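Re: [ENG-882] Designed sequences occasionally contain unexpected residues at chain ends

Forwarding the minimal case from QA. Structure tokens:
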């Protein structure tokens, strides 16, 4: 480290991305500090991935034990199933506390200085924390994001709330509206219906789950929505939401812009996406202006300002915790003069519903658009869990795996799975896309039998005509 700097690296933000960057920086021999003005772990650990998965795990058990017809087919009979809402909420809280503590201790153990307070850019290679100024050869911005709340929405945190409050599970409303049919909306619909609530899902676009591959979205609607206490509204905006008892939701037709209904429910979860936390960062002190709130970076995670880098949700590249972690490692590699970039096409995503949904790479429409631009044709093949021996043994045969590939070279472009343990199965496909594997090569992989992974094996073999 040059003697003119306090640190080799200062990271502003101690979420999953900042934490991953700090660990890698220490491994690379950099004297590192991390700045956090809230709680260690960021959104993922405290208000996102971790507590929501704890709720999904508990509510999923309730759903399984209440599915008496399914259990009876396995030769199992159960009596009345009861649960304690407060105990389920405590399970999530305890998990958050444990992981937050583990994250903090791992940084301290490795000698990372934790600077508590609001971190701001004070100038070239300078960070202010409170009334103190620290210097660093390089700075990484890892400030994350927060829920987006549209105009006309009145939040009170009790009857109208975002996922930040929903993970606390302070109440179980009898009837809850969910604005948005993305990952957050789907997962909370899964939790609420498993625990006995009725759900109305409201989507502004004409189709539900617009970010999913169309074939997966159709099955998800059939499996995750229609059999449950969920009604859906598409092509309507929730233009005004008033907190209270009841909550009043003004629904406006997306095409005509006319109010068509005022819905009255017990509670409303606003799950309309997330926006970057990039305000009041002192970016003006280095003449860096965010675009629509996002910090523009190149493939190395470098901003236009020398020695200033940005990762995670603040960049808007791929708003996933594990993507932020991968970006943090890439940024540190480039700081150490070892050129690296992020391969976004190989980063998987998942919704931890019951059954799960996962994907990596391109959807079929995206692949066809790419093919039209680059002059190749796209093909797809599907295989089904109902033909998988392990899924049959589990009594969990709903779902499919869909692979998308180039007709000419066989290169794998995208994989989409809905079914039991889909979130675990997707990583084989992620590795294949990272290595730009062909379906012909993948068809030669030997999978253990009987395993769920054979659903991908079958798809590869069908595509390669093996």
């Amino acid at each position: 480290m040059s003697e003119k700097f306090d640190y080799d690296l200062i990271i502003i933000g101690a979420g999953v991305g900042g934490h991953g960057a700090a660990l890698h920086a220490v491994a690379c021999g950099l004297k590192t500090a991390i700045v956090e003005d809230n709680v260690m772990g960021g959104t993922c650990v405290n208000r996102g991935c971790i507590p929501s998965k704890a709720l999904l795990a508990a509510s999923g058990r309730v759903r399984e034990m209440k599915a008496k017809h399914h259990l009876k087919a396995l030769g199992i009979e159960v009596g009345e199933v009861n649960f304690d809402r407060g105990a389920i909420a405590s399970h999530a809280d305890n998990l958050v506390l444990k992981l937050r503590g583990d994250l903090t201790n791992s940084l301290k153990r490795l000698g990372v200085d934790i600077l508590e307070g609001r971190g701001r850019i004070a100038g070239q290679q300078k960070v202010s924390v409170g009334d103190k100024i620290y210097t660093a050869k390089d700075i990484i911005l890892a400030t994350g994001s927060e829920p987006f709340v549209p105009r006309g929405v009145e939040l009170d945190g009790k009857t109208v709330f975002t996922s930040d409050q929903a993970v606390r599970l302070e109440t179980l409303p009898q009837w809850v509206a969910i604005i948005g049919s993305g990952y957050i909306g789907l997962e909370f619909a899964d939790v609420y219906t498993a625990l006995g609530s009725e759900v109305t899902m409201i989507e502004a676009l004409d189709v539900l789950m617009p970010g999913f591959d169309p074939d997966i979205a159709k099955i998800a609607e059939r499996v995750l929505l229609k059999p449950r206490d969920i009604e859906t509204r598409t092509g309507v905006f929730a233009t005004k939401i008033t907190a209270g008892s009841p909550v009043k939701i003004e629904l406006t037709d997306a095409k005509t812009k006319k109010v068509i209904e005022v819905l009255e429910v017990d509670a409303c979860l606003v799950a309309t996406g997330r926006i970057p936390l990039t305000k009041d960062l002192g970016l003006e002190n280095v003449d860096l202006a965010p675009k629509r709130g996002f910090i523009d970076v190149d493939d190395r995670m470098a901003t236009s300002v020398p020695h200033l880098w940005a990762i995670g949700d603040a960049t808007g590249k791929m708003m996933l915790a594990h993507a932020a972690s991968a970006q943090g490692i890439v940024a540190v590699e480039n700081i150490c003069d070892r050129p690296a970039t992020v391969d976004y096409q190989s980063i998987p995503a998942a919704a931890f519903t019951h059954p799960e949904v996962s994907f990596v790479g391109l959807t079929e429409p995206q692949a066809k658009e790419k093919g039209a631009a680059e002059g190749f044709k796209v093909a797809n093949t599907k295989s089904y869990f109902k033909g998988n021996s392990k899924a049959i043994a589990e009594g969990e045969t709903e779902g499919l795996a869909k692979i998308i590939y180039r007709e000419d070279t066989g290169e794998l472009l995208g994989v989409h799975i809905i079914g039991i343990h889909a979130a675990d199965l997707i990583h084989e496909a992620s590795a294949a896309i990272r290595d730009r594997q062909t379906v012909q090569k993948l068809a030669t992989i030997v999978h253990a039998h009987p395993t769920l992974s054979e659903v991908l094996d079958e798809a590869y073999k069908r595509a390669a005509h093996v």
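QA comment: On inspection the terminal residues look reasonable. The longest strand covers residues 132-141. Proposing we downgrade this to a documentation issue.
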